[in-house]
Amino acid sequence: MLSDITLGQFFPGNSPLHRIDPRMKLILTILYIVVVFLADTLSGVATVLALSVIMIPLGSIPFRTVLKSLKPLRFIMIFTGILNLFWTKGGRLLCSFWIIEIYSSGIVQSVFIIIRIVALLIGSTMLISYTTSPIALTDGMEQLLSPLAKIKIPVHDFAMMMTIALRFIPTLIEETDKIMSAQKARGADFSTGSVISRAKALIPVFIPLFLSCIRRADELAVAMECRCYNGGKGKTRMNVLHYKPIDFIALLCVIAAGALVFFADRIPLPSILY
């Protein structure tokens, strides 16, 4: 399970998504999230999912890797879908048992939620995590938020903290996997028993993981001090970011995708769903 979590991993390459400026990627991610939540019909949400799948070959990321990243979230998707299935009222009554009622609108809304979660995960990871290095992401976030520095907001520190947190997710996942493997070798059982017993079994994992986080944070602080790091004051950049034609092409593609979703929402749904 832990090996399937690929959040925060960077896959070097020279694909079209890799060549987009990190500042533009952050803007595109925000626009993409807006487009996902603007889709309010099944045809519109399906169009969003199709657009997110198109990003996978554009980033030269194996489909198997993207599918593996969805596996850890399957419980959240199923749980959210079931909640919307039972709580959404409207349309035709399909099933009624005691206090449980399932309407056609509940089924549609459950499908909406699951597709949106999948589309958000694929789109955001393809733009931010998989195709953008931590250093480029830090520079892009800092320059994009640079106007806030005029009102004394520590933009550089904020960008550095966000990037370090994202970068250390794979490291902490790997550390957790090692600790769990060591506990299993000592007879620990994480897969059987009730929910409470499983939660108690994780206590011997959390304590060494917490100590490992503190140790790694101390080592990182010492390493940054040894390199004379003093924040963004007087900082220069080895690679200066410049917008390229591919950045504006990508922006136009996202705007066109938003327009496509807008028109797809106008396509009437089959009457069986109402």
How would you sum up this structure, described in words?
This protein is mostly helical and 274 residues long. The protein is 64% helix and 3% strand. The protein has ten helices and two strands. The protein has helices at residues 22-38, 42-58, 63-70, 74-87, 104-129, 134-144, 155-185, 195-201, 203-226, 245-264; strands spanning 93-97, 100-103. A two-stranded antiparallel ribbon has the order 1-2. A hairpin with a 2-residue loop joins β1 (93-97) and β2. α1 (22-38) runs parallel beside α10. It is flat.
> Structural class of the helices, strands and pairings?
mainly alpha
- The rounded Rg comes to 22 Å
Give the % helix. Answer: 55-70%
**Tally of helical segments:** 10
Indicate the overall shape.
flat
Summarize the main sheet.
Answer: 2 strands, antiparallel
What distance lies between the first and last C-alpha atoms, to the nearest angstrom?
38 Å
The topology string of helices and strands comes to HHHHEEHHHHHH
**Quaternary:** single chain
What is the total tally of β strands?
2
Q: List low-confidence stretches.
A: none
Look at the structure and give the mean pLDDT: 80
Give the DSSP E fraction (strand runs of 2 or more residues): under 5%
Provide the spatial order of strands within the biggest beta sheet. Answer: 1-2
Descriptive keywords:
274 residues; mainly alpha; two-stranded antiparallel sheet; 10 helices; 64% helix; 3% strand
